Amino acid sequence: MSVTLNSSFPPEDYSFSNSEPSNSLNNAQTNFSTALEIESTRFSTIEWTEIAKLVRGKDQRCLRDHGGIEGIVLALETNTENGIHGDIIDRESRRKTFGSNFYSAYTMSKCFSLSALESVKDPMVVLLFVCAVISLFCGLKKGHLWEGVATLLVILAVVVISAGVNFWTMYQFGNVSFQGSYFPEVDVVRNGNWHKISTGGVVVGDIIFLKPGDQIPADGLFIDGCSLQVERVKIDGQVERETADAHENMFLLCGNTVVDGYARMLVTAVGKNKKHHMMYMNVPHMFEMKRLTSVIGNIGKGVALVSFLVLLGRFLCGKLYDVNGNLVCSGGTSTLDVMAAMVGILATPAMIALTSNPEGLVLSVKMGFAYSMRMLIEVGVLVKETVVFHILACVTTICINKTGTLTKNFMEVSKFWVGLNSIEEVPRNFIASNVIELLHQGIGLNITEPPTRSSSSPTNSTEKAIFDWAIKHLGMDVEALKRTCTIFEIEPFNSKNRRSGLLISNNVDNTVHVHRKGSPEVIIPMCSHYYESTTGVARVINKSTKALFEKILEDMAENGQRCIAFAHRKTSIRDYFTFSKQQLILLGIVGLTNPQRSWTRVTVEGCKKAGVNLKLITGDHPITARINAIECGILGPEPQHGEVVEGMEFRNFTAEERMEKLENIKVLARATPYDKLLMVQCLRQKRHMVACVGRGIGDYMALRAAHIPICFGTEGAQFAVAYSPIVFTKKRNFLLILEILLWGRGICYNIQAYTEFLITATFVSLIVDSGTTIFANGSSTIDAVSHVSSGRVPYPAFQLLWVKLIVGTFSALALIIKPPSQSLLNKPPRNAAEPILTSSMVTNISIQALYQVIILFTINFKGMSLFKVNSNQKDAMILNTYIVCQVFAMVNASLLGYNNVIEEMKKKKMLWGIMGIIISIQVLMLEVLKRFLGTAKLDLKQWGACIAMAASSWLLSGLLRTLPDLKKAIKYIIDWSSFKPKVD
Q1: Cβ distance 704 to 723 under 8 Å?
Q2: Using CA atoms, how far apart are residues 765 and 754, in angstroms rounded to an integer?
Q3: DSSP string, 161-200
Q4: Closest CA to 820 of 915, 749, 733
Q5: What is the distance, to the nearest Å, from the Cα of residue 523 to the centroid of all Cα atoms in its chain?
Q6: Most buried of the four, 49, 97, 280, 718, by CB within 10 Å?
Q7: Same domain membership, residue 263 and residue 141
Q8: Which residues form the Cation-transporting P-type ATPase C-terminal domain (predicted)?
């Protein structure tokens, strides 16, 4: 499936000169098509397939033969500074020649065709179709045309309904898979202007700016940049890191992740390098359902084979009768009668095999996944892989960060210290001009943004808050700053080193300056001096001033502020790589605050009730982390010893100490990306099912190691959006964590409920159909429409369709297509090793199936004498009792795993509605359409008997549900009665 390109006319950014209103649309379309055809010919002489191959094959020699990157740029008619022209004609011509970066999708008609083809692949359906054609031929000869037509209509209805459900599921998956948020944004320059566009809109010839956290959207060539390091995941799951540059390795491949540095790249190939993941292939539920379907289907085919042999033996022995009671045998009868007999002999086993194949199991899982994914999209959660539902139901621990997750994704400067004075205490006018100038340089230039977008505010929330504050409170003029300074080198922020760097030249006095910013724990130890705020004089950091700085940082941490330090030193290019790191001069310390997200405490409490542990992993000071954890409820008012641990301490534990203290650790402060990874790995070693919530480059290792990565928002690193199977798209309310846990558990419980119901109904149908065929008493008839076969299976063709609708479609709607109950969050997580079909479910299936088989066989063999009915009424009672039994079985299955039955029943409005529809149609079939559908009318006494026998299964289910409690009560009574008090 794919997103198709919008080809509406006229394009919004293309104008036409034709002014005749009557023909404007046709002329616009013609002009556009003509212009596009002309534009496309300009690339006709380019060996663009060779260009695509040289990047994928990393062929240096082929690159040189094409004139290096300059030759490729020239051939693709682009510019390294200004990019492509970028109008609609240019973009469309490039897509027509080189391909699109969007996925390719099946059309709706193709989806339905594939669904219909899948439905008719069943050999039993093909066999029934052949029998129907023969029956139609026999009916033409005998004047009974309606029998063959009815059979064909039944088969057609079964195929259409199955294809329709398959199509709906596939269509839902297509809509979910290709939401716009699935494509992250990328910085691209076109016609000299930088834009943010979807990666799906990238075309060959585009110039893209890459920064840490970006996922390379297409194959291309490195143009220029600094310290670009990328990672790729190999087929065996191992991660390989490599450095890209303009000489040794300038080949950049689609899907690799930028982990350090920045660069500009030229796009040389799009589209074909994209992966398309099938949405429901590697899902544990699917494998288990397919295995169950295969086992039950094979049992059904075995029973059908036995039925066929019995019927064939009757035919060969001369013990087969037609509907008029005439003997039919292999000899002595007309060819037409023999053909009709063979139709009955073949149709009966085919019907048995078809009804005993629970294909609804696999289909119900697909339907449940599609419905759940659609409902989650409406609340702002994009689920891209169905396997996550199985994992979500089993999640025991969630690792979260603070910024952008517990707190909102924007920050504000609440404190700024220059030297030993805060700006609130010393107005800006009193701060030395040289200090102000250096702060402008360190704040305004030490950011990682596309080259020509530096005048705008940074996208990183921390940099943006400081950047905007400096413009407002320090009078920073970004345009003037750019004119007076030349950037030699930028060292992007590195989560491991927790700092970034900048080397610039001041064009006014030709001095060279180095700037650093990052965590105070990293920057301040690199400083030997600090600037006095009012005089601008550098003072030595001695023991007393160092203690004062530590007190400042501690006070800011206790107020929940995140601290960033700025440092500087005048240097030279020659001395840049040799000067001591301990010779920087501290410029200032900024404190930033993050508003906490709404419903954070409610979410944390809900996770605790659901048996899910939350672990806060943050780079903040331990005091800041502890305060935030107390505010949101992860820690109690008075944290216990060992609940807050620093990253370095956790890293230095021995393996045994880590595993011993792991459960008690709730907050990991001053954590590096490696510490996050180590925490996730340790949790997995202790058999926890781990979800990890992140959005930045510092989270990528932990996200990759977790069972289920969750990207909290679409503004984070592109790799996190593309790599995470769960993305919070519209609103980043932390309460959505509970929402996805609820839906993960809900779909598992729904699948279990439907599995129990469907297997019970399938086995009952299989045993009754085969039993009434093999052990038929009286004359065995061959009317393929009225009695399906010579064995008098009690479900005629239309009734068989009705049974399949109830067991397949209606029950799936009642048990699968429904929102989960909130009470599921009061239960512990599922055991990941526990199968869908549990031992208690097997017990329920066995007892319920046995009960239904007993009452249906009783009606079949003794019903005429017990209820004083004729043969047709007896068959009607069998059908009616079976249908009503399944209605009550839906209720039993829907209450699987729930203790408060009455409260749950009040919530199941859709179930009650579907039950009402089934009963209404059943009454209509028996009382109104009896002649047309081959049924018989029942009186109130017979209806009451059917309902009473079916309702008894409900009481039986209630008894089974209370059996564990009854066992506990009996054990308690026995233990109490055997207690003998001591005698002094």
Answers
A1: yes
A2: 16
A3: HHHHHHHHHHHHHHHHHT-GGGS-EEEEEETTEEEEEEGG
A4: 749
A5: 41
A6: 718
A7: no
A8: 794-960
The verdict on 209 and 345 lying in the same domain is: no
792, two tokens: 């008098």
Amino acid letter at 542?
Answer: N
Mean pLDDT score of the chain, rounded to an integer? 77
> How many C-beta neighbours within 10 Å does residue 605 have?
13
Strand positions, DSSP E, 86-238: 185-190, 193-198, 207-210, 219-233
DSSP 837: S
Rounded CA separation 638/683 (Å) = 25
Indicate if the pLDDT at residue 9 is higher than 50.
no
**Domain boundary residue among 235, 269, 303?**
269
Name the β-bridge partners of 711: 694, 727
- 750 belongs to a structural domain: yes
Residue 331's pLDDT is 47
Q: What is the mean pLDDT of residues 414-428?
A: 82
Q: Which of 639, 594, 592, 646 is nearest to 619 (CA)?
A: 646
Residue 393 near residue 368, CB atoms below 8 Å: no
What's the gap between Cα 652 and its chain centre?
Answer: 36
On whether both 262 and 144 belong to a single domain, the answer is no
Q: Tell me the pLDDT tens digit for each residue of 677-710.
A: 999 999 999 999 999 998 777 787 888 889 999 9
Question: Residue with structure tokens 């760097």?
Answer: 501
* SS percent in the chain: helix, strand, coil, step 5: 55, 15, 30
Strand, helix or coil for residue 762: helix
Check which CATH number belongs to the domain holding 66 and give it.
Answer: 2.70.150.10
The rounded distance, in Å, linking the Cα atoms of 272 and 265 is 18
pLDDT band at 111, cuts 50/70/90? low
Taking every pair of Cα atoms in the chain, the longest distance, rounded to a whole number of angstroms, is: 123
How many CA atoms lie within 13 Å of 361's alpha carbon, on the beta-carbon side? 29
pLDDT digits (tens, 9 = 90+) for 552-603: 998 888 888 889 999 999 887 776 666 555 589 999 999 988 887 778 889 9
SS3 label, residue 204:
coil
Cα 413 from Cα 685, distance rounded (Å):
41
Tell which wins on pLDDT, 690 or 721: 690
What secondary structure does DSSP assign to 418-462, as a single string? ETTEETTTS-GGGS-HHHHHHHHHHHHTSS---GGGTTSPPSSHH
Q: Please give the average per-residue pLDDT across 349-376, as a whole number.
A: 77
Quick one: which of 587, 623, 613, 617 has its CA closest to 418?
Answer: 587
Nearest CA to 98 among 255, 206, 210?
A: 206
Confidence class for position 646, pLDDT limits 50, 70, 90: very high
H-run or E-run covering 284: helix 284-316
Q: Provide the domain limits for residue 818.
A: 117-168+282-369+741-968
Q: Which of the pair, 304 or 187, is modelled with greater confidence? A: 187
Confidence band of 979 (pLDDT split at 50, 70, 90) = very low
Q: Can you give the CATH number for the domain in which 474 is found? A: 3.40.1110.10
Q: Which two tokens stand for residue 352?
A: 């048995």
pLDDT recorded at residue 683: 95
- The Cα 262–Cα 756 span in angstroms is 55
Would residue 328 count as lying in a domain? yes
Per-residue burial over 253-287, b = 16 or more CB atoms within 10 Å of its CB, e = otherwise: bbbbbbbbbbbbbbbbbbbebbeeeebbeebebbe
- Stronger pLDDT, 134 or 365, i.e. the higher one: 365
Three-state secondary-structure class, residue 515: strand
Q: Is the pLDDT of residue 141 over 70?
A: no
- Domain ends where: 218, 238, 269? 269
The residue whose two tokens read 């119901």 is 757
Of 326-340, 615-629, 805-819, 872-886, least confident by mean pLDDT is 326-340
Q: Does the global pTM surpass 0.90?
A: no
What does DSSP say about strands 397-400 and 613-617: parallel, antiparallel, or unpaired? parallel
- What does the alpha-carbon distance between residue 83 and residue 79 come to, in Å, rounded to a whole number? 5
Q: Is 123 exposed, middle or buried (0-12, 13-18, 19+ CB in 10 A)?
A: exposed
